[in-house]
Amino acid sequence: MKLTPDQKAGIYITVSVHLAVIIVLLVIRIGQEIQRENSFVLDFTQQEEKERREEQARLEEMTAEKLEELIAAAEAIPIRNVTVDRSALKDDRGTNADELYKEAERLAQDLKDGQNRQVEDPEAFAAAADPVKPKQEEPKVKPYSGPSVLSWSLDGRKATHLPIPAYRCYGAGEVTVVIAVNNRGDVVNAKVNEEFSTNDGCLRNYAIRAARLSKFSVSETAPARQMGTITYAFIAQ
Fold first, then answer.
1. What is the pTM of this model?
2. Structural element, H or E, at residue 193
């Protein structure tokens, strides 16, 4: 059966009215639930505040009672005056206590006098406490150093500082040190060339020390670690 336009309009209106009524009822129900929840929260908060006040009052009451008990206990303790006859006090060796008291007073006075002297003359006290010991002359060791010469090789660079080691070794010989130089001219690494160097450990140490202190010209185009050599010829003592 085909519905006329008027029938369709009536059905639409009826459905719309029912939906509107359902929506209104749902909104009212939700509002009641929210109000009930807020009331519950409010009542719960008031209950917590009431319990907190009751707990505080109970603690104050207990504190007051405890304080009263302590005062009463203190008042009940009798206070006695004790008198001691110092002359009658003796130990198992028969020592007179009065003499001991006098000796203690004398020692206390001596200590006090010593403290006063310390304040009046602190320099004298310091000298007495820490006397200056006579200086003992240390045996003089006559230093010695041997002559040495060096030669170097670093492609395209000039040497600006080449310290000649004044060594303290008895031996003689040559030590060739392989060096790595950065762009600023600093020696960043130094190692003895075993093939062309003496085995004397003392000479090798002085050569390495002098090589690390060497300086060369700055070069922006040189490698970051340019390799070269410095040869030290140590002459016998």
1. 0.40
2. none
